[in-house]
């Protein structure tokens, strides 16, 4: 990572300001990291270079970096340097973009760390999913508890499909709802996170075999890549849920996985990050991307690149 000379005016520290120096350095480093291209995986400049750039002591610089390491944005490796955690940087860059089009949540408002929001134009993405043969043929659908796919959960129930929805953080297992057995007047509420537990059956991981087999997986995301990588909010809930379902035999590699996202959540640069699971289809507010037809990476590469 190279710091451009014209960045000093914008990123320097003010010794006369009320804000502690280490906080100023921390905030400036964060801005530098987020302004890099997503494909840049080089380490931060050396301590002496950063000390000279900011005009601060080694102790002040290290305190700022330690804050960012604790916050999950940086990783300090002995003898190698300080590196950006690419996956976290992608999240923060996308959160900045998404804040312009996201719809607030009743619990978390606009704290995008805690939920996957609905967004302007999501109805167009839902319609793209509903036109696909995978949707028409699916009898049992795994639906993530994301705000961005609530209307698809409702559409599935209206169509008489069965849906499996994980509770927040898997704290209460999964909720299973059968649209063919719900009254039409109850389906709107049953599609919501608060209402579904009133109308559905709660299943623990060991009960998932009762679902028989899942025909389709639909999820929101914090970010997705053009080679079909799903990046969640950091808790990796989808990865855990997918692993459980694979082990229990209710999904397999042929099970289609569709992500619903806004255009601003699609990342087209190669970024080092571990995916939650690989997607087959990405539906956005303006387009539909079949990544199965374009994915050319080998299995070892898929594990290494976002």
Descriptive terms for the model:
2 domains; Rossmann fold; alpha/beta; 306 residues; 33% helix; Arc Repressor Mutant, subunit A
Model description:
The protein contains twelve helices and 13 strands. By secondary structure, it is α/β, with parallel strands linked by helices. The chain has an eight-stranded mixed sheet. A three-stranded mixed sheet has the order 9-8-11, with helices on one face. Helix 2 packs across helix 4 (58-70). The radius of gyration is 22 Å and the shape is elongated.
Largest sheet: 8 strands, mixed
Q: What is the beta-strand fraction?
A: 15-25%
Number of strands: 13
Distance between the termini: 20 Å
How many H/I helices?
A: 12
Number of domains: 2
**Rg, Å, rounded:** 22 Å
The CATH topology of the largest domain is Rossmann fold
CATH homologous superfamily (4th level) name of the largest domain: NagB/RpiA/CoA transferase-like
CATH class of the largest domain: Alpha Beta
- Overall mean pLDDT stands at 86
Q: What is the global morphology? A: elongated
Structural class: alpha/beta
Strand order of the largest sheet: 6-5-4-3-7-10-12-13
Low-confidence stretches: 4-9, 297-306
Instruction: Give the helices and strands as they follow along the chain.
Output: HHHHEEHHHEHEEHHEEEEHEEEEH
Oligomer: single chain
